[in-house]
Design goal:
Blueprint: H1 4-7, E1 12-13, H2 15-21, H3 24-36, H4 42-58, E2 63-67, E3 79-81, E4 83-85, E5 91-93, H5 97-101, E6 102-103, E7 123-127, E8 133-136, E9 139-148, H6 157-177, E10 186-200, H7 201-204, H8 208-213, H9 238-253, E11 258-263, E12 269-274, E13 277-278, H10 279-299, E14 302-305, E15 319-327, H11 340-359, H12 361-366, E16 389-390, H13 393-404, E17 439-441, E18 446-448, H14 458-480, H15 485-500, H16 512-521, H17 530-533, H18 540-548, H19 554-607, H20 613-643, H21 650-678, H22 689-694
Parallel strand pairs: 2-9, 16-17
Antiparallel strand pairs: 1-8, 2-3, 4-5, 6-7, 7-9, 8-9, 10-12, 10-13, 10-14, 10-15, 11-12, 15-18, 17-18
Helix pairs in contact: 6-14, 9-10, 11-14, 11-15, 13-15, 14-15, 19-20, 19-21, 20-21
Bound molecules: adenosine-5'-diphosphate and magnesium ion (MG).
Adenosine-5'-diphosphate (ADP) binds at residues 189-191, 193, 273-276, 322-324, 332, 442, 444-445.
Length: 696
């Protein structure tokens, strides 16, 4: 690309294009909607639709689509041509306000968790004007929310938008109490750091497990893994660099501010980080980023793996959700700021968030729960499955001083108006980078590190937005009636901190001592699997909070829980079937071929009177291992049959898959991986780890 500046967002119907193409009054109304989330009248929508269509057609688009985020985890789209036939056999290009605002896709094939019987197959998509329309592959994409005929939400965007409204409303109440009269909207911001693997397409094509499940179900540890730590931030190979370059260009054209790229810890692993945006847009953009990562890889003879754990024994891929809260008068509300009032306001939001994370740690945990991410959380590479919070020693000292009514032992103290020690002018780097915390304060934002690489960031942001709003609401209820604001505020902050500081842990989250302390001393929950944590979605406190703020109804939460658990069992079922298939059709024959060769050597040696213990030992080993493999396959097959017994109880069913099916898969894998180390290379039926990881 000659000029990144000129082509940035060239395929986006953004503010600049709207200013040029819309009548002034219409433009103003759209801007109001974008900034405040207010609704648009149908005549305004008509004008916008027409301008969008003209712009899109000029850019070569022939179709439009309502683009939405069903519970499948990937986005969905159905394309309609703009053209509309005239009676004289000619056509005109049309796109009405109605078509922009509302779509009616057949929704029966999307997961609904029992919400929508197929006879009510109709679903609605509704335009989300806060996220810009864009052109991709000759189609105009309109970001939309997706709900059922009866109004229950079926997607990942709607709750996010609702949670953003809730956060705005409650945060504004707090800002007003601090005397702010300028802010009219508060938004959550998010920046998603995205990890991924790249493997050679030719090698990928030879592995049924990668093709079908996105991860390797077999594979012995290679002689070299990541122990030399030579890949992290290492030189980027030419082929990878060309890929990253094209990816950046394509992302920029869609207005996605891809900023940083580097090699990650594992061989063949990389990361991309964008500049942060409002959470809803960041979520849309992260979906597009994942899609383009995969698509562009193919053009370079590569395959991009977004699975959380493509290779056993090698680091998996995560996604970090950097999150903060910004007001539309230009403040980052999680920035400690330089003046005492900014500081107190910051402390209020900080303490509110500490309580939110403590009270609703189960929701944060489950927002990162999936079959794929179960391989990471709790293992020694991702944050532990226990939610805790890192705020750094300095902030902790300050909050301790507040609690004990003493002076914090920090330089450059300023007296707070509420009579506590102020934050010193706060350097962002003071929170030395704790990489082991699931929720780390990083100077002016929190970084949630539990998400898996394939996850949508939407659910996590719903949780962060709604739970902090819940606590801010409590604070505001108490403060609005207070006679002495400062005294009341101090009382609330001290009490809240005291009751919730249990969740703060600034040490090494990967250590065994922490797991012991967290669970035995502090009583923090440790949900080690998806199946453990998902049912907490329906805990009374969670349902009450979501219903209070109208983010989800109880029915919607139940449907989500069911969908996610079903997804878990389906994923493991597919993996198990793939293993059986690969074992029987590829590994058995390979072992037999090699055994045949060894035996024929052995026979010919014997025929001339040479005794050889090595060949004999090998032949015996091969034959006994094959027997083990066969019985492991049989065990797994039997577990799959037994699983059917619990099929009508999604909770039982998913537990059975975790406890029975998954453990049988691991046993099968162990035997196969051992065989891989003794069968001659030319007989092994698919590329091994060293090929996949080092031949990119
Ligand atoms: P690193 O974590 O590698 O040091 P940064 O801290 O600069 O890098 O940023 C990491 C990510 O956090 C980036 O995607 C960035 O856009 C995002 N980020 C920075 N500030 C904010 C904010 N106020 N709200 C949300 N995300 C943010
Ligand atoms: Mg980071």
């Amino acid at each position: 690309m000659k000029n990144a500046e000129a082509s940035f967002a060239c395929n986006v119907f953004n503010q600049q294009v709207m200013r040029e193409r819309l009548p002034k009054d219409v433009y103003k109304k759209v801007m109001q909607t974008k900034k405040m989330g207010t609704s648009l009248s149908s005549d305004v929508a008509g004008v916008v639709a027409n301008a969008m269509k003209d712009w899109a057609v000029e850019k070569g688009a022939t179709h439009f689509t309502h683009w939405f985020h069903p519970m499948t985890g990937v986005t969905a789209e159905k394309h309609d041509a703009f053209l509309s036939p005239n009676s004289d056999g000619t056509v005109i290009l049309e796109f009405s306000g109605k078509e922009l605002v509302k779509g009616e896709p057949d929704a029966s094939s999307f997961p609904s968790g029992g919400l929508r019987a197929t006879f009510e197959a109709r679903g609605y998509t509704a335009w989300d004007p806060t996220s810009d329309a864009f052109i991709k592959d000759g189609t105009l994409y309109i970001p939309t929310a997706f709900c059922s005929y009866t109004g229950e939400i079926l997607d990942k965007k709607t709750p996010l938008l609702r949670s953003m409204d809730v956060l705005s409303e409650q945060a504004l109440r707090i800002l007003r109490l601090f005397g702010n009269t300028t802010a009219t909207r508060v938004l959550s911001t998010a920046g998603a750091e995205q990890e991924y693997f790249l493997v050679d397409k030719k090698l990928y094509d030879q592995r049924e497990d990668l093709i079908i499940t996105g991860r390797t179900l077999f594979g012995a540890k290679p002689p070299k893994g990541q122990e030399l730590e030579d890949h992290y931030f290492g030189n980027i190979k030419e082929r990878i660099s060309a890929y990253m370059h094209e990816l950046d260009e394509e992302l920029w054209k869609l207005g996605i501010p891809a900023k940083t790229k580097h090699n990650e810890v594992a061989p063949a692993q990389h990361e991309l980080a964008p500049v942060f945006e409002t959470a809803n847009i960041a979520s849309d953009h992260n979906q597009l980023t994942m899609e383009l990562m995969k698509k562009i890889a193919l053009k370079h003879g590569l395959v991009c793996l977004l699975h959380e754990k493509p290779f056993a024994g090698v680091n998996g891929s995560g996604k970090h959700n950097n999150w903060s809260i910004a007001s539309n008068d230009g403040q980052n509300l999680l920035d400690p700021g330089d003046t005492p009032t900014e500081n107190t306001q910051f402390l209020t939001f900080l303490v509110a968030f500490i309580k939110a994370v403590n009270k609703y740690s189960d929701l944060l945990r489950l927002s990162a729960a999936s079959a794929g991410n179960d391989h990471r959380l709790g293992a020694n590479e991702a944050p532990p499955a226990i939610v805790s919070m890192f705020i750094g020693d300095e902030l902790q000292a300050l909050l301790d001083a507040l609690e004990n009514d003493t002076k914090a032992d920090i330089k450059s103290n300023v007296k707070f108006e509420i009579g506590v020690d102020a934050l010193p002018s706060f350097k962002k780097d003071n929170t030395d980078r704790n990489r082991t915390s699931p929720m780390a304060f990083t100077g002016n934002k929190f970084e949630f590190r539990m998400l898996g690489s394939a996850d949508s960031i939407s659910c996590t942001n719903v949780m962060m937005n709604t739970t902090i709003a819940d606590v801010l609401c409590e604070f505001a209820d108490e403060l609005e009636g207070a006679k002495d604001f400062n005294a009341k505020l101090k009382e609330i902050l001290v009490k809240t901190y005291k009751e919730n500081k249990n969740i703060i842990f600034n040490g090494n989250g990967y250590s065994d001592e922490w797991v012991k302390e967290a669970t035995e001393v502090r009583g923090l929950p440790n949900y080690t699997s998806t199946v453990d944590c998902l049912p907490t979605y329906l805990a009374d406190k969670n349902v009450a909070m979501f219903e209070k703020f109208k983010v989800y109804s109880k029915v919607e939460i139940a449907s989500r829980t069911e969908i996610l658990l079903e997804n878990y069992t389906k994923v493991i079922n597919i993996e198990a079937l793939t293993m059986v298939d690969m074992a029987k059709k590829q590994i058995y024959p390979a072992v037999m071929e090699y055994t045949k060769e060894v035996c024929s050597v052995l026979a010919s040696m014997k025929s001339v009177g040479i005794e050889n213990a090595t060949q004999e030992k090998l032949a015996n080993k091969l034959s006994s291992s094959l027997k083990c493999l066969d019985s492991a396959v049989t065990d797994l097959e039997q577990a799959l049959i037994a699983a059917k017994d619990s099929a009508d109880d999604v909770y039982k069913h998913s537990r059975f898959y975790r406890d029975e099916v998954f453990s049988k898969m691991q046993s099968l894998r162990a035997v196969a991986d051992e065989l891989e180390t003794i069968v001659a290379e030319k007989y092994w039926p698919f590329p091994v780890y060293s090929d996949l990881l080092f031949r990119v």
